[in-house]
Structure formats: structure tokens, C-alpha cells
Design goal:
By secondary structure, the chain is of the alpha+beta class. The chain has helices at residues 13-38, 42-50, 56-63, 119-134, and strands spanning 70-73, 91-98, 101-108, 139-140. A 4-stranded mixed sheet has the order 1-2-3-4, sandwiched between helices.
């Protein structure tokens, strides 16, 4: 297969401007992802922990095999909807390895409105189950 020669010049002003814009967009997404990963409000998180409970991502980390990757699905579901404070539509969904087996995992986040299911929560949950069925993966809730 022949090598395709690039017409891009990393020294050009257009390239530099585009690269800078891309870095800004990536940083913005990283900031939003960090916000979503926190889950509910600080008050809700503190209340949850004060009751002796693990936060959802802590439960997930303990469930997954050590060092195993987790492919999160729908991290930005319900972003900027329902008043803007429904992180990940209230549930964490994805594919991870448990005891050496790839599984679809659904973790309810009680720090987000007490674990209330919204229409997009249901849609996200059903999509996770659909992915499991299509790929013959077990589900862990």
C-alpha cells in the first residue's frame, strides 16, 4: 500500500490555530468529564459517605478486576438537561472485566437525586442491556 503524503504543514499559522482550538476543546471535555464523574452534589456525596456507603465509582472500582479497563458508555447522557444536575443520567454504564469475564455493568448513583430514574436514565439503562444482548455479555447491576 503506498504511503499517502500529507499536505499539512505543522509550522503554518492555520495548523497552529487549529491545534490550539483542538487543545481547548479537549480541555473543555476533560473538565466536563470530571464534573460528571463527581456525580451528585457535594452535600449528597457527604451524606452518602456519612452513612458508611461507598460512592458509585468506588463500588465500580472494587468490582472490576485489578487494572482492568472500563469502557464507560453514555457518560454525558442528560448533560445540561433536567436543570443541569443529573450527572450521567444518574447511572454509570459500561463494559468491564469481572473475574476475567467481560460484562456490561450498570451502577446506580444515589448521590444524583437519590437515585431517581429519569426518561434518559431508562433509555441509557436499556441501551446498556441492548449492548449486552447484542454481544452476549452478562449484565451486573
Amino acid at each position: 500500500m503506498p504511503v499517502i503524503q500529507s499536505q499539512l504543514s505543522p509550522a503554518s499559522e492555520t495548523f497552529k490555530a487549529n491545534a490550539e482550538r483542538m487543545r481547548a476543546l479537549v480541555a473543555d471535555i476533560a473538565d466536563k468529564a470530571a464534573t460528571v464523574e463527581r456525580g451528585g452534589s457535594e452535600e449528597a456525596r457527604e451524606r452518602h459517605v456519612s452513612r458508611g456507603k461507598l460512592l458509585p465509582r468506588e463500588r465500580l472500582a472494587q468490582l472490576l478486576d485489578t487494572g482492568a479497563p472500563f469502557l464507560e458508555i453514555g457518560q454525558f447522557a442528560a448533560w445540561d438537561m433536567y436543570g443541569g444536575d443529573i450527572a450521567s443520567a444518574g447511572i454509570i454504564t459500561g463494559i468491564g472485566r469481572v473475574e476475567g469475564t467481560e460484562c456490561v455493568i450498570v451502577v446506580n448513583d444515589a448521590t444524583v437525586k437519590g437515585g431517581t430514574y429519569y426518561p434518559l436514565t431508562v433509555k441509557k439503562h436499556l441501551r446498556a442491556q441492548e449492548i449486552a444482548a447484542q454481544n452476549n455479555l452478562p449484565c451486573i447491576y
